[in-house]
Write a structure and sequence with these properties.
The protein is α/β, with parallel strands linked by helices. The chain has 5 helices and 5 strands; from the N terminus they run βαβαβαβαβα. The model has no long low-confidence stretch (mean pLDDT 95).
Length: 121
């Protein structure tokens, strides 16, 4: 399974990658904002994105992905510091399949990935 990790912080991308490797994933593509993420969607099975990024934020990117016929059902998990109930509701309404508030454990990431992939079968 190929995963796209989108985060403006290279340190956070590395943390997510290392966590994913610990739970058994090894095929990654990286992007530093939503615009780069859109350009890297080809062949991706799951998107893990931050919300707050320069150039194009995660929510705008999710809305754009959902409008594209090839990617409207692509699984998307948002990993962010935005922990407010209204933020979570807004993200889900706009097409995010699952939501993780930072900081997170490897177990939470694995659980959310498993849950998201089962829902999308």
């Amino acid at each position: 399974m190929k995963l796209l990790i989108i985060h403006d912080s290279s340190t956070m991308r590395r943390i997510i990658k290392n966590t994913l490797q610990r739970i058994g994933y090894s095929d990654f593509v990286e992007a530093s904002d939503g615009a780069e993420g859109l350009a890297a969607l080809e062949g991706v099975d799951l998107v893990i994105t931050d919300w707050n990024m320069p150039n194009m934020d995660g929510l705008t990117m999710v809305k754009t992905i959902r409008k594209h016929p090839n990617y409207k059902s692509l699984p998307i998990i948002m990993v962010t510091t935005e922990a407010g109930r209204e933020d979570i509701i807004e993200a889900i309404k706009n097409g995010v399949n699952n939501y993780i508030v930072k900081p997170f454990t490897p177990e939470v990431l694995k659980q959310k990935i498993d849950q998201t992939m089962q829902q999308n079968q």
